[in-house]
Amino acid sequence: MPKVKISALGCYVPPGVLTNKDLERMVDTNSEWIVERTGICERHIAAPEMATSDMGTEAARVALAARGITGAELDAILVCTVTPDMLFPSTACLVQDRLGAHRAWGFDLIAACSSFLYGLTTGAALIAAGTHRKVLIIGADTMSRIIDYTDRGTCILFGDGAGAMLLEPAGESDAGAGFIDFIGEIDGSGGDFLKMPAGGSRLPASAETVEKRLHFVHQQGQQVFKYAVKKMYEMCSEVLERNGLKPSDVGVMIPHQANRRIITGACERMGLKPEQVVINIDRYGNTTSATLPLATRDVIEQGRLKKGDLVMFAAVGAGYTAGASLWRWAY
Ligand code: COA
Q: Quick one: which atom of ligand 1 is closest to the CA of 152?
């Protein structure tokens, strides 16, 4: 089976910024509390006319340009998102059309904050099967459209953004770089702790669902927090252990960015040093499906990620969903 590598990356964040000070004028909160409890200073918010497919297309274009290819060369496009432009057609179809990716098939993948991690794994399986040579994984979310900006427990956390990674078969020149392993777990018994209750077949949109604000994210923050720290630690420890690796072997740990304290709690328990861990939640907040590519871009720009480094991606999200994957960086 061919080995799979990440061969290019592209990101897009909308220019509009919502700072903690801005939020102080919207809800009963203060910047010090937000920074201390979450690590977030600001987040980017899409302009009203911009939707998830627009940000996803921008990120995809950057990734394709970085690799020097066009959309016409893609075999498949997976869009990881909880905020599709609409339920159907899929956002993957909308992006495919704009990229001129006339050979590609694709679909949307919904796993909340674990979406991009699951997308990477699914895309890697398509390449490993030998049936696909270029698969584009896009993580894009316009969280500001499903956040209740009167609820101080959630509105401080989320931001908008997009990222894309291109997956291709690794060759001999890649010297063993590429996908190593993935471990995932879902636990639907935690579904009530973090959800957008209405808008699906259970509670279709009605005047009542709108009035009760059921089209927004609802969460029990402390429950989610505790699960996230425990599960991120467990997933990462297990994937390392079953590959005979130690935390000290990790070049860069790229975790989902939901709360700085979730990341540091899980990573300290694992014995990872702060310099191994990427945290950029201060500038973007939780962009749901876009956090992993955005954090990867930052670590590359900081010169902290080099060819051959062991990379561990990890995520936990609504569902519950969780997972961790190991890669050797290929470029
Ligand atoms: N500003 C000021 N005070 C706030 C606040 C805000 N934005 N949000 C909550 N508070 C208050 C609470 O009302 C509570 O007040 P009380 O003690 O008078 O009742 C107090 O702060 C503590 O609330 P608590 O919920 O215990 O805070 P916390 O330390 O757990 O932080 C979260 C709240 C939401 C930041 C935290 O639970 C969290 O990040 N959870 C995970 C959420 C998440 O990651 N979701 C996405 C998953 S991928």
A: 7
Q: Which of 11, 93, 113, 155 is catalytic?
A: 113
Tell me the one-letter amino acid at 113: C
**Distance separating alpha carbons of residues 296 and 311, to the nearest angstrom:** 10
Condensed to tens digits (0 to 9), the pLDDT of residues 196-250 reads 999 999 999 999 999 999 999 999 999 999 999 999 999 999 999 999 999 999 9
- 149 C-alpha to center of ligand 1: Å? 15
Is the Cα torsion angle 20, 25, 26, 27 positive or negative in sign?
A: positive
Q: Which residue has the tokens 């990379």?
A: 311
Q: Which of 24, 25, 37, 320 to mutate to test the pocket of ligand 1 (most atoms within 8 A of CB)?
A: 37
41 tagged catalytic: no
pTM above 0.85, yes or no: yes
Q: Which helix (H) or strand (E) holds 108?
A: strand 105-109
Pairing mode of beta strands 17-19, 252-255:
unpaired
Q: How confident is the model at residue 1 (pLDDT cuts 50, 70, 90)?
A: low
- Give the Cβ contact number of residue 208 at 10 Å: 10
Q: Is 267 a catalytic residue?
A: no
φ/ψ of residue 250, rounded to 5: -70, 125
